[in-house]
Amino acid sequence: MALAATLVPLSTLHESAVFSFIGRGAKDLGPLSLALVPTTILFAYLPVRIHAFADDPGDRANRVWQWITTGWLILLSLLGSLS
Q1: Which of 19, 14, 11, 21 is closest to 52 using CA atoms?
Q2: Residues ≥6 apart with Cβ < 8 Å to 62
Q3: What is the CA radius of gyration of the chain?
Q4: pLDDT value for 79
Q5: Distance of alpha carbon 7 from its chain centroid, rounded?
Q6: What is the pTM of this model?
Q7: Separation of alpha carbons 81 and 18, rounded Å
Q8: pLDDT computed for residue 4 by the predictor
Q9: Which residues of 5-23 are buried (b: 16+ CB within 10 A; e: fewer)?
């Protein structure tokens, strides 16, 4: 229980850091920030979400949430490069 209580805030903080990294990268690099999205997902987002895949591998919500977040990161990268 104590481990779960510490993992929730850490994973929220980690996911927030991923989004801010993509947002800052989009402003600094423009359209080249799209190249950061797969690398960021592989090395920063999936390690946080892997516990959900391990807990219930047959749950479709895990895959749907992953694709929603991936789409959001791509959209953030595109819209951030426009501003």
Answers
A1: 11
A2: 49, 52, 53, 56
A3: 14
A4: 77
A5: 16
A6: 0.60
A7: 16
A8: 63
A9: eeeeeeeeeeeeebbeebb
How is 34-77 classified by DSSP, letter by letter? GGHHHHHIIIIIHHHHHHHHHH-TT-HHHHHHHHHHHHHHHHHH
Closest by CA to 65, choosing from 80, 50, 44, is 50
pLDDT in tens, 23-57: 777 777 777 777 878 888 888 778 777 777 777 77
Reference 28, options 71, 79, 80; nearest CA is 80
For residues 77 and 34, the answer to whether their CB atoms sit within 8 Å is yes
Tokens of 33: 């920030």
